[in-house]
Design brief:
disordered C terminus; 16 strands; 18% strand; UDP N-Acetylglucosamine Acyltransferase, domain 1; alpha/beta; 221 residues; flat
């Protein structure tokens, strides 16, 4: 798409979401910015396709601490903290849930990634007080530039620049730059630019899915 066309679409998107920005600012005054953001985020998350992404970005450019116009925010994405920062060319996959985060330039989040505001969003020390009433210690989680977080991962600690986090992993400790991590809890299994330490399937063996496909094919034949 030509730059002029993109700028025109972005300006049109801002005009469309302007009523929501007004209700968000009013809601922030009444119930607090984060709570207002949550309700507006849930509404905006339901708009599908490229149109939805443009409208979400238009809203978050004004509702978050920073949201670059080049960001892509897919269907079903929810935000809970206005302090979140999204840098250039960030891609956020469908149904991600994000709290107080900073996503560096060119970060890619696969579907259903969760990045809450650190590992201590609730206090748990006291047994005479319900957890919901115990204050936590939220903190910003930083995902470094040019990192890729796989589908379904949960990020509870900082991710270094140019890292890869495997799908379904839970990051509980900071990862070093240019590393590949996977598992629960996530551990370093390789480095960018080098062969990973993931075990390879022995030669001559096949996955159950492949075997089932072959059996099905024989029956059809």
């Amino acid at each position: 798409m030509l730059p002029l066309a993109k700028r025109t679409i972005r300006l049109l998107a801002i005009a469309i979401v302007s009523p929501l920005l007004l209700t968000h600012w009013l809601g922030s005054w009444v119930s607090g910015a984060d709570r207002s953001l949550e309700s507006h985020s849930q509404f905006l998350s339901l708009i599908p396709g490229t149109t939805g992404s443009y409208l979400r970005v238009a809203f978050y450019r004004f509702a978050l601490a920073h949201c670059d116009p080049s960001v892509t925010i897919s269907f079903g994405v929810l935000f809970s903290k206005t302090a979140a920062r999204l840098e250039q060319n960030v891609y956020i996959g469908p149904r991600c849930m994000l709290g107080w985060v900073r996503l560096g330039p060119d970060v890619l989040l696969g579907p259903a990634v969760q990045i809450p505001s650190g590992p201590h969003t609730h206090g748990v020390a006291r047994l005479d007080v319900p957890i919901r009433e115990q204050p936590g210690s939220p903190r910003c989680i930083d995902v470094g530039a040019d990192s890729w977080v796989g589908a379904g991962a949960m990020i509870l600690a900082d991710v270094g620049a140019q890292c890869v986090v495997g799908g379904g992993s839970i990051v509980t400790k900071p990862t070093r730059p240019r590393t590949i991590s996977a598992g629960i809890p996530a551990r370093e299994i390789g480095k960018r630019g080098e062969a990973t330490t993931l075990p390879e399937r022995p030669q001559g063996t096949e996955s159950p899915v492949t075997q089932a496909d072959e059996v099905r094919a024989e029956r059809i034949g």
